[in-house]
Structures
1.
Amino acid sequence: MTPLPLPSEPPPLFQDLLVEPEEARSILRPQKDERYGFGFALSPYRGCGHGCRYCYVREYPNALHGPGDWGGWVAPKVNAPELLWSQRHKLHQARVFMASATDPYQPLERRYRLSRRCLEVLLLCPTTEVIVHTRSPLVLQDLELLRDFGERLSVGLSIPTDDDTVRQIVEPHAPAIPSRWAAVERLAAAGIRVSIGVAPLMAVHDARVFARRARTSGASNAWVGGLRLLKQDPFYKVLADHGWLKVLAPEYKEGIRAAFLEVFPPPKHKREARVEPVTAPPGPMASQPGLFDRVG
């Protein structure tokens, strides 16, 4: 008689989050972004423990989870650093955005450290520019590593509202707004170029005070981005119930943007403020390590 198979172990939990480690087949996704131009997006995780209620990534096809499960599961790409190392030849004079479809410094990073290990690979790619975007002060755990990149790395902090009571409703599992301001200040004090992403724009209490707070925090620039809703998005009801439908109006976004332009004026020869391309330092031309080169 053939014995019945034993049941497989359930996926592990991390702070009530379902953790589903996986082996990724690719790690660099070509992208064209209106702010940053051509380059690659790098996401060490699939899913996000922050579970922001408005996140557009909810609509991405997933065999096991639907939009209603967003924020309850994360799939760490456990081979991400090794996969990135094998594909580093693609990154010569390229720009890498980490991350577009997840937060690289969500709470699970404390355990897996995949974002740090990917950054360690990128540090060995001297012609590659890196943009780290997060809403978490957990980025500070890698402060020294970030400094090692010098001028070819910048950090963006997402602060979509100046009111933490708004944040508690739209981003209930994400870090508090005051802790994000503290992270901006520490990064800037360490000499790291920091930008503020007021995106996706949520209800703002005082736009001018918000903009001045961004400037005094040490941020080098800021930008305001609109909200992208899914078809028949339940988040629309959240906005309606709290009287925040104004954030969907183009004139509201332009009003907030105007307040930020007062303290972050765009360069005179450009239409909008943006991250400027990093120029190569004087000295011998840097070269990307070859695919089969040994480093260190």
2.
Amino acid sequence: MIIEQPSTWMRWLYPSAIWRMSHKERAVYLTFDDGPIPEATPFILDTLDRYGVKATFFMVGENVKKYPHLKRAIEERGHRLGNHTYNHVGGFGCRSKEFLRNTYKADQLIHSQLFRPPRGWMLWTQYMRLRKRFTIIMWDVVTRDYSLLLTADDVVHNVQRYTRNGSIITFHDSLKSIDKLETALPRSIEWLKEQGYEFRLFDADQPRSRHLK
């Protein structure tokens, strides 16, 4: 469960980050990390269109540079953009200046106030600098669609088991996940709709501090 749904101590590690939206509203926030790529993004966009759902795409800068038409497609279809660094670098794996430089480089292509660190980790110094410039969006549910050990059914089960009011649900716009997403994404959306959840996007002026349970 510490993977699919972060524990309380993880949520308090970065106190200005947003892990979950309001628990009082029957709504969820779909997010996709790591794209855009031609092998996965078009399918995701077509599926979201089919169900009338909007999502937030936390994109890697080098992928945006390679496939600018996919970034445009995401925007033109009414989805929100987010920064996921330029090279998908981990905050613990490089110096703070390098991590910040990588993030700002991605921002020159993505132009978004929203930021999500790869793997959900960053050094405290990196966090303190980035929180001044971005709204840091984490997650409430990780579907683990990237895992070679999970099937599409397992991914759907994670959505069903851990989703609650205000959940920020993370899928992946990647080669590791697309084989499972082809089944799991439409089934997950259908289940969420059956449960009465509304699909929402983050506001452009999203509050930067949220301590939710």
3.
Amino acid sequence: MTIKEYVKVRKEELKDLVASKEVVPHLVIVQLNEDDASNAYVRGKLKDAAELGIKADLYKFPVSMSEAELLKEIDKLNHDDSVDGFIVQMPLPKGINEETIKLAVSPAKDVDGFHPLSKLNPCTPQGIMDYLHRENVDILGKNAVVIGRSNIVGKPMAKLLLKESANVTVLHSKTKFEDMHNYIKNADIVVIAIGKQHYLDNRFEYKPSAVIVDVGINRDENGLHGDAIPGLPVRLQTPVPGGVGLLTRLALMENLLKIK
């Protein structure tokens, strides 16, 4: 099942779940940037919410907003009983510390899953795991390679794979090429999230049974590209665009419904 097919099926399931609730779940998106990727992502999230019957509001503030002013708005949302969950869309303007903002969001309303005390997982890794499960990808005892060590994708992805008893190796920009080659050659699952267009290519060897999850989003004049070239000789490779971004958006709605 392609990611688009999977998301469509799962949305129908979630739509029924939302309809069964006595009170409509309420999501708020806080945005302080004019980033093209963020704008597209926010539009997608609002569209998803509308399709599922979820109430979603966009609170768009000027990029000149100070950290103190943003913290006041977050505090209001933390104490607004009509709001079930909210996110602060990244990136943030210069002068605002992302870690400070993530920690200011109440764990009880943190649908992004970024707060260390949140009971939810970050959306991208959770969305990937849900899709791997739906595709019956074996994880137990398998060799999983995560390329990238960000707090949003790489580290939590490794943690979720480890939780399901995969043999997890985290590689990054300081990993030697020959070591990278060796780990990828023996990997059953590769998750790449380093923001280097078409880094995974024919320089590497792959197991024909391997699964490659491409989290990369790289823009040029020809559009969006992943961290892997399309059409690698593996069992399953997620596309860019139309891949992990859809899973991330879906997981956000799933997280909201777990709160609500």
